[in-house]
Task: structure prediction
Amino acid sequence: MHLPAETDIAAARANIAGIALRTPLWRLNIDVPGTNIYLKLENLQPLGSFKIRAAVNAIKSKDPAALRGGVVGASAGNFGQGLAMAARRMGVPVTIVAPDGAAKAKTDALEAMGAKVIRVPFAEWWQVLLARRFEGAEGVFFHPVAEQTVVAGNATIASEILEDLNDIDAVVVPFGGGGLISGIGTVMRRMKPEVRMLAVESETAQPLAAALAAGGPVKVKHEPSFVDGIGSGMVLDEMWPLIRENVDQALSVSLTEIAGAIRLLAAKHHVIAEGAGAASMAAALAGRAGKGNIVCIVSGGNIDAARLAAILKGEMPV
Result:
């Protein structure tokens, strides 16, 4: 798989126009000495996540005739919702294989959109990603990360950021499979190569930090938590060349720091972020992204109500 060209990203912007929003870039209303924190609010997308860009572009880049038999995806919820929306518009059935730790709010939304949801243990779900198929599910398989059209859809975020803010020192991106930071990074490397691309992981799973230290993907421990949009047991081999080219450093944040960032976003900006979406801001607030103008990608806002209520009360959700 190759990084998308400028023409691929332009095509992606055309494909998602009228479906995905051009989300705002807000300055965080907090005084951090020597630092301005900007939030790219992808949680405001129609389905509450940046994944709508990737999913819609991936489906619209395929020949509609090839999709008549259905669409299959592996997703913790957000990418699946994008697939379900696009598939429903085309009148084709969609099946989403989800890890058993996926937020109920996400899988409920999938079923409400007419998708068939199959929950499996995380290890089995990971094998679906590697095999790009699920036994018994009919249709064209769409990978949530390792597709050139997915990365191109994600890259449209960077194009919008640069239209709103020219002076950027770093971009902090939640790291799940690497498709988001690879998409944003390919634009920044081309247009603003001095910008530092920082990936953020939670303390419960740090496959990227391990890969960067080892010079390639290695297996790490993955502990389920309320932060279900990032973290895995290993960086995908097929994504490693793109990630290596587009990531300068891996940062880590604790679950306590992520929960604090969720509370702060709700109190200061009346913005609801899921765990992965708040991780980038948590890293910036902790000073791990450095000084200057820091852009944090708030990747999504799909969090279970019970988990959000616990966090807002100062508790750690189960």
Summary: The beta strands are 25-27, 35-41, 71-74, 94-99, 116-120, 140-142, 170-174, 196-202, 249-253, 292-298. The mean pLDDT is 93. The chain is about 40% helix and 15% strand. The first helix runs from residue 6 to 16.
